[in-house]
What does this fold into?
Amino acid sequence: MVHTVAGILVDPVTQNLNIGIVLTHKCMRNTNLNNNDRIYGSLGLAYKITDYLTASVTSRRDWRTYYGEGRIAYGTLNAGGLGAYANYGSTGYENNHEALLAFNKTFNKISVLANAGGNIRYSKATVSAQSTVGGLTTPGFYNIAASKDRGVLSQLYERQVNSLYGNVSVGYNNIAFVEGTLRNDWSSTLPKANNSYLYPSIGASFVLSEVLPKNNILTYAKIRGSYAQTGTDVGPYAIGLTYGTGNPFGSNPTQFLPTQLPNQDSLVRSFVCLRSWR
It folds into this structure.
């Protein structure tokens, strides 16, 4: 969803102000300013239970702050020639807490590699945007105080996704391999009665060149096939049909209906078949 602030497009995901540049016969400039600060780090512990079994836990955090502003010069074609100014700021963070159990062992000619774990992802962002409405009272003075009217946007975004997942890979004599994965997510942005989505995958491969007579023409050949089913959630508050808040009409507040219906089915299925020759 892209918000419009005084003719200036603001994308809450990429956090960019998009202002078209139009020059007249006068020397005037429409400019954008962007500043993005980010700090991230992780802390993890691993414990080797046996030679083939390892347990680990990891916590990660990503902090982000963003500020951007845009200016449309008075007298240019944009904003009706009246000039405009907007600023946009956001602060937010994302936490990821993961626990994982890893198994890796070979039984004679059979190799087994398996992982099982879970993750809790929580993100929160606060967004504040202001823009001039109706043009600038003083050409060249780019400040919200120079607005003939006021346009303010303030929003809070929160999301949590809990996940359980695992994968198993079994190989025979380094010739044939079978792999499978399974993951289930529970997202706070979906309806409570339908906030769980499962997506499995299965694949197999066979190294054909290992059973063919050795030659200088075909040194390596592998046949692979896989099937995968994927799923995803939606953005915060995207499934709710709610009113948006617009600029006041005189002393009366205004609201508007959304222009897009929410999608209740976010599951995507795909089938892939691959082969590899060398």
Observations:
- Residues 1-27 have pLDDT under 50 and may be disordered.
- The radius of gyration is 27 Å.
- The longest strand covers residues 110-136.
